[in-house]
## 1
Amino acid sequence: MARERTWDPDVPAPSWFERSLATPMETARIDVDGTSVSYLAWGARGAPTLVLVHGGAAHAHWWAPLAPLLADHFRVLALDLSGHGDSDRRDVYSVTTWADEVLAVAGDGGGSGRPVVVGHSMGGFVTIATAALHGTELDGAVVIDAPVRRPDPETMEGVSGGMFRAPKVYRDLTEGMQHFHLVPPQPCENGWLVAHIARHSLREVEGGVTWKFDPGVFTRRTGPNRPSEYGPLLSRAACRVAIVNGADSTIVSDDMRAYMAELLADSPAAVAGVPFVEVPEAQHHVLLDQPLALVTALRAVFGSWRPVGAPPVSVRPPSD
């Protein structure tokens, strides 16, 4: 049975969205461990660096409408993780390699200082790994609706490739977009925003168009790839950390929020304080449900990290 589409592409877009997409944007590529990684950039060169990381099977253009709203004070960079978007594919994927890609883009993107990294869903796991493995090189990390789960030996969990079968080929962009669905599925009132990411989720191939992402990002993985494996990494975060969730998320439970708070209470990040923010009227896909509220939440987090008159906070590295 075909899944019913839960978004309306004919809903008119608001003016802020049109202005954002009209904002000048740069494209660039960088080689990371033998693989070409694509990224987008907004804002003035030399401004503080902000790196935005998409979720699984997604791409940098998920962030394109929001990035210009953060570019007044940042050099904003949104990358396509390898195996996603316009980046090349790898034989094997790992969250540690994706963390290396985040740092490489941050260093190549024309910004200044230690970067702030913001990641959604699977990109939140990448952000956690970056904060744990390279936290002393970051100014801060924001994790958006990533379900860090308590270890439970009785629960069989994992990242299933079953939802991402070999991609079909569609006749043209219009037909392909008609088959775009959010994963995990949820309704979204902002059809103009979903249509934007659907359009950038497809690439031309012989006979038509198909999805850009490599299904192997879910099936050819090494290292942590289960939600319960990210707790130890989160507890090692060696930079400032903030947690942002959709208030109505069905992916991140109250127990997961409590578990993350427990982990961070004893982490190196605790010295700086760890804000937990819930975005009202947002499910898992916070970027699509409440884009302006998410921008406001991020601006508030960044502002809290730089209060007027307060001395800088030094986050101690984790001890082995």
## 2
Amino acid sequence: MNNFFQNYKEDLIIAGLVIVAVIALLYLTNRLHKWLVKQENERFPGENSRPVFMVKRILNILWIVLGLIALSAIFVNSGYQDTLIHNFKLVLYLGVLSVCTIVFASTVNLWFKRSVQKKISLNEDPTSIKFLRYVAVFSIYSVGLLFFLLAFPSLRGVAQTALGGAGVIAIIAGIASQEALANVVGGVFIISFKPFRIGDRIKISDNMVGTVTDITMRHTVIRNFENKMIVIPNAIINKEKLINYDLGELKCCERIEIGISYDSNVVLAKKIMQEECENHPLILDDRSAEEKKQKLPIVKTALISLNDSSVTIRAWAWANNYSDSFQLRIDVLESVKLRFEQEGIEIPFPYRTLVMKKEKEDVK
């Protein structure tokens, strides 16, 4: 045993130093992680600490792998020393590159988030900055991936070509027919031509109505009135016809329609609908000066169709915006229903006449 320690004394000392160094680095990394999380919570409350956690895990794995390589170099033959040194440098390069990429991307992302919050506080449109944030973060990770590929000789040609710029055209040509590029181009078109912005209320179909909360490189996110998120690919939303309630003039005309029976008094029904609309606090007087001079009513009503078992009366009621018009509609429908019941105006339901086969035979 004494001979063993005498022969391998230097190697054992070096191995002990390597183990102590790895343990010290792991301890310092964990302490640094706790300090960064604390600083982040104090300076940027509510921010996601996932990047800091990822950096911690990468560094911990890096120290362990480097320590194992260093320990291996002690006990292998000198012929493998060059290979271990190469692997040591490769792992160190990949680890440092990964950490730098995550830190840089997180810093840029945080700066863009602060810019978005600043624009929102100033009541300015943050749509362009939010979209540029996704572009910038995606670009940083893409460049980091290309430098990652440079570390491997078999993939070095692909990375150098892409970094050189000639590969960009080849990549675009290769995926031109794919939906991914269509979504990216769609996002660029939305940001450039602004058919809608973040915060706008839009309607794509009866099932897709809500407020735009985010526009990414791939999709647009809409929060509907049930507080559910609707994710629509940019390529699809660019092809759809949509209604933007916040584009241009905000005032909105709500068409309120109610069917009454043929026996009911149409003139009285029109008068009730007009009164209930005009008495609502959210009604907007959209009459011109000439119409006011002629003392025309604020709300126009008319009989618009004769149906199988009812006649339909419509009221055109204006409100300041879409939210007010929706509230106006539901309130007026309820108040008109109550007034119709008081005045004896019937809201009909479909009638069906059934002829029993036995009765028909008896008649014959």
